[in-house]
C-alpha cells in the first residue's frame, strides 16, 4: 500500500504558517490568521475581531477552510496593538501555542439531533486548554490538525492528523491520519489526543523526518507504530478497532450544515466567498448575544447561530441576504471558493474574486440554481492553489498572461491533491461553466480520498 502521497513536501525550513503574532506580508499589507478552536466565538470576541478588522485592517473578516479567521490589510506597526486587542478578548490564551490551536469539531453537534456525542463545546474548550498547557505541543506545525467528530463523519472528511470520533455516548475511536487505531473511553479522549500529538513529534524527530503532518511522513510505519505504542502504554483500557471502523470515509467531501434552519433553534449561513465586512459580523454578534452567546464558524466557511427563538430565526433569515450571506441550497454561490487573487496576492495571475463574482452574476442573470449534486468549485490565481478543498471538487486555475494559450483559466476535476489544468474548448466561459447548475460529473477517481491510508501494519 502507498505510504505517502505523490509530491508530499519535504520540509527543509521552519513553519511559516501565519498566526495572530506572526503576520504574513502580502501585496495588500500584512495578514493575521486567528485560530478559533472548534469554531467557537463568543459575541464579545466577534465584536473585538470586527473592531480589529475595521480599525487596523481592510474592514473584512474572512473564514479559512478550518473555520479560522483572517484579517488583511494590516500595517506591520500594528502587530502589537492587534495582539493586545486579541489578548483582552481571550483570543490569545498562549503566545507560545497560538498557531497550533487547530481544532475542528462537528459544527452541528448537539444542534440537529444527529451524531452521538451531543454538544462538543466543553470538549473543544478543554482540549484547547490542555494543548496550551502542554509545553511540547508548541513544537507542532501551524498546519497540524486535531479533530472532534460527533459520530457523523464530517470532521473525519477533513483528514485531521489526530482525531476522535464518538462511537457511543461513552466511547470514541481514535484515528491517526485516516487510519483508526484504538477505541477508548470518552473521558480519556482529551489526554489521548495530546499524547498522540506529542508522540508524533518525538517519533518523527527520532527518525529525523521533517514532516509537519502525519500524512506527509515519507516512511510512516515506525512513527505511527510509536504513536500507537504511546497510546497503549498511557491508556491500557484501550482496545483495538474491530470490524469496519466507523472512521472509514463514506462522504466525498466534508459535510457542513446546509444553509437555512438547523435543528429546532439554529441557523446556518455560508458567507459569500467566505468573507464578510465587519458590519455583518457585528450584526451576527448582536443576534448571538440574544441567543446562546456563540457565533460558530465552520470549515465550510459558514457561521452557525443557535438558541434562537422562532421569531429571531425568521428575522435573521429574512435579513441574511442583505448581509451577504447564503440562505438556501439552490444559491449558485454555495460551495464556490477562491483564493485571494489580485490585488492582494502578487503571485496571482488574475483578480479571481472579481472574476468569480462576475460569473456568479451571469449565472444568476440566466436564472440558474445550484443542483444539490454539484461538486464544490474552487478558483485559484496560480498553481499554488491556496485554500483549495482537500476533497473532490472542480477547479479553475488562472493562466499567466504570458502563456501562449489566451484563455484566462484552465479547468480540471481535482481530488484535493493535484490539478493538471486542461483548457476547455472554444466557446466556453470557464467560470460560468463550472458554477452553472448542471448535474455533477463525478469521475470514478474522485471517489477516493486525496491522501493514502497509513500502512495496515501500523494498526494494533
UniProtKB/TrEMBL annotation:
Q: What are the protein's UniProt keywords?
A: 4Fe-4S, Heme, Iron, Iron-sulfur, Metal-binding, Oxidoreductase
Q: Which SUPFAM superfamilies match?
A: Nitrite and sulphite reductase 4Fe-4S domain-like, Nitrite/Sulfite reductase N-terminal domain-like
Q: Which InterPro entries match?
A: NIR_SIR_4Fe-4S (IPR051329), NiRdtase/SiRdtase_haem-b_fer (IPR005117), Nit/Sulf_reduc_fer-like_dom_sf (IPR036136), NO2/SO3_Rdtase_4Fe4S_sf (IPR045854)
Residue ranges of the Nitrite/Sulfite reductase ferredoxin-like domain? 27-87
Which residue stretches belong to region Disordered? 385-460
Spell out the Basic and acidic residues composition-biased ranges: 385-406, 439-451
> Carries keyword ATP-binding?
no
| Annotated Gene3D superfamilies | Sulfite Reductase Hemoprotein, domain 1 (3.30.413.10), Sulfite Reductase Hemoprotein,Domain 2 (3.90.480.10)
Specify one Pfam family: NIR_SIR_ferr
Q: Is Glycoprotein given among the entry's keywords?
A: no
Q: Which residues lie in coiled coils?
A: none
Top-level taxon of the source organism: Bacteria
* Protein's name according to its UniProt entry: Precorrin-3B synthase
According to its UniProt entry, this protein's organism is Mobilicoccus caccae
Question: Its gene?
Answer: cobG
